[in-house]
């Protein structure tokens, strides 16, 4: 890789860090190519990115971003997962690490706050942004449905009472 390519890579990674709300740092030593592809696919499914990085270039790309505190984690064979959704990348990496002990989560950062491996695991247990949106929509529609049923119930009861009264008057005549 020549000097210009390295500058371009650092610039692209710096932009990626600027667009992301979370960055997870992992060691991947011992994973096969097939396992790496499976991990990349799992991360891609949730809208995140996973890439193997050159430590020195990554440290340069981290400068001036909210993930600058992660620089110390970049030793050995490292890979990063980034995403705009604060939970997606952590959840995908943690799920893969459960079934494959060769992926080791070193730590991460979310919106400027550095997390250790336990912090990343705690983040992975939180519901994703899409799950939270679904719950919020459910909470918002439930009261509206209840209000509609409550307002319709008295009218229906009144109609049934009037109908019963009319039927009883018809029988009396």
Quick overview:
The protein has 173 residues and is of the alpha+beta class.
Descriptive report:
The structure is a single chain. The protein is α+β, with helices and mostly antiparallel strands and 173 residues long. It has two domains: 3-126, Alpha-Beta Plaits (2-Layer Sandwich); 128-173. The protein is 60% helix and 16% strand. The chain has helices spanning 3-19, 33-45, 55-62, 88-99, 117-125, 129-172; strands spanning 22-27, 49-52, 78-83, 104-110, 113-116. Strand 4 (104-110) and strand 5 (113-116) form a beta hairpin. The mean pLDDT is 85.
For the termini, the CA-CA separation is 102 Å
Task: Please identify the structural class as seen in this structure.
Answer: alpha+beta
CATH topology of the largest domain: Alpha-Beta Plaits
As residue ranges, the low-confidence spans are none
SS element count, helices: 6
Features:
about 170 residues; alpha+beta; Alpha-Beta Plaits; 5-stranded antiparallel β-sheet; 6 helices; elongated; RNA-binding
Itemize the secondary structure elements and their pairings.
Layout: H1 3-19, E1 22-27, H2 33-45, E2 49-52, H3 55-62, E3 78-83, H4 88-99, E4 104-110, E5 113-116, H5 117-125, H6 129-172
Antiparallel strand pairs: 1-3, 1-4, 2-3, 4-5
Helix pairs in contact: 1-3, 4-5
GO molecular function, one term: structural constituent of ribosome
GO cellular component, one term: large ribosomal subunit
Pfam family, one: Ribosomal_L10
């Amino acid at each position: 890789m020549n000097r210009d390519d390295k500058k371009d890579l650092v610039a692209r990674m710096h932009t990626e860090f600027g667009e992301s709300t979370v960055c997870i740092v992992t060691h991947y030593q011992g994973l096969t190519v097939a396992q790496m592809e499976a991990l990349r696919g799992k991360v891609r499914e949730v809208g995140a990115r996973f890439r193997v990085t050159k430590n020195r270039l990554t440290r340069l790309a981290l400068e001036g971003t909210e993930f600058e505190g992660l620089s110390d984690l970049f030793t050995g064979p490292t890979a990063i997962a980034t995403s705009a959704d604060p939970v997606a990348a952590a959840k995908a990496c943690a799920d893969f690490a459960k079934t494959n002990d060769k992926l080791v989560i070193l730590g991460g950062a979310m919106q400027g706050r550095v997390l250790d491996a336990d912090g990343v695991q705690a983040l992975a247990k939180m519901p994703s942004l899409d799950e939270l949106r679904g719950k919020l929509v459910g909470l918002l529609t439930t009261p509206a449905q209840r209000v509609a049923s409550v307002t319709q119930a008295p009218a229906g009861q009144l109609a049934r009472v009037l109908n019963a009264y009319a039927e009883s008057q018809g029988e009396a005549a």
